[in-house]
Amino acid sequence: MEALSAYIIKVNIALIFFYLLYVIFLKKDTFFAFRRYFILAATVFSFVYPFITVSAWENIISFEKPQKYTTQVTVEDPAFAVVLADEVQTAEPVNTININWWQVLLLLLSAGVVFFLARFTWQLVSILQIKHKSIRKNIDGMEVFDLYDEITPFSFFRWIFIHLDSHSDTEIKQILLHEQTHARQWHSVDIILMELLCVFLWWNPIIWLMKRETAINLEHLADNGVLRKGVNSRDYQYYLLRLTYHQNATRIVNNFNVSLLKQRITMMNKTKSPARKLVKYLIALPLALLLMAGNSVYAQNQRESEIFTEVEKYPEFPGGNQAFMKYLVESIKYPVKAQENNEQGRVITNFVVEKDGSISNIKVIRGVTAALDAEAVRLLNSMPNWQSGEHQGKPARVRFTLPIV
Length: 405
Hints:
The structure is a single chain. This protein is of the alpha/beta class. It folds into three domains: about 1-65 and about 285-305, no CATH class; about 100-265, no CATH class; about 310-405, TonB (TolA/TonB C-terminal domain, 2-Layer Sandwich). The protein is about 50% helix and about 15% strand. The protein has helices spanning about 1-25, 30-50, 55-60, 100-135, 170-185, 185-200, 205-225, 235-240, 260-270, 285-305, 320-330, 335-340, 370-380; strands at about 70-75, 135-140, 140-145, 155, 160, 255, 305-310, 345-355, 360-365, 390, 395-405. The strands form two sheets. Strands 1, 7, 8, 9, 10 and 11 form a six-stranded mixed β-sheet that branches. Strands 2-3-5-4-6 form a five-stranded mixed β-sheet, sandwiched between helices. Strand 8 and strand 9 (about 360-365) form a beta hairpin. Helix 2 (about 30-50) runs antiparallel to helix 7 and helix 7 (about 205-225) packs across helix 9 (about 260-270). The protein is elongated. The two termini are about 30 Å apart.
């Protein structure tokens, strides 16, 4: 669960940085194809780079000296159970309600995934229903589906849908040029990819913004494909304006008209960006390297703090286990308040034996009362230094779990 959470966080961090880079530096140029490849490459990289670690970077970008090694293990030995007071018996278990908020969060996230996956599936089904109700025709050697209703023209992969009765021959030619660009350049792949990202990362608003930018850029590509065929830009733009009242088929297709029509017209009238501005796209390289370096350092720190269940040499209390038991029994002071209130029970504690043998990170995992918990913590704090443990020949931090009854 922890590894999955770390992976999701890394993916989303990368997506956020790439989106910001796109909006700040790339969004306003006319390199539509480069913009498309940037979005696709950035998306794929964001999901892949958490698996890439470069060991050469770990020692260069490290906040600790390479020779340091920290290991943490958990040990629970029933033989270490200690009686807090001779006359006290184990108390009856207390019924408590413990809410695992991580599981609640996971449940909510999963519910969102199920909802958006169901919506995505229904959109796919709706396209098949539209295709089934449409009439297949051949126009200028192209297979076109004649829509049964005045829906905005759209394409889905190689399928092109037009309500032929709503358009003149000239308009149909412009539509076909537009939708052919979508179909030949496989724009539906981009749309499906972004839809799936929104399904599984629905809680991240950056994903929805990336989906929006993807759709707009694909329309820029298709508009550019129409204008490059010699279509008059003014006539084409007037036609787009007349299409605004038409209903869109569904969200997962390349609609001939999208809501942000003003951006499309502005971009069509914009002067082509000079080739020298392509150098801006190289900004993505240092960002990618920085993300990979950060992931390598994170992986190194994870290995150094890895929690083992076994070590080669466990820490030892001075004099051994018998001396440890003797120390605990002789050092326990049954709190007066606890005696007066007849308080009893098992205090589950854990602590870490550091590499130098000192005791740290004393915690009460499951307490009984404030007085008994405080005495258990005091008892562990008063312990002398232990002989440190080792794992794979290197100093190790070892965590012990100790029930004090």
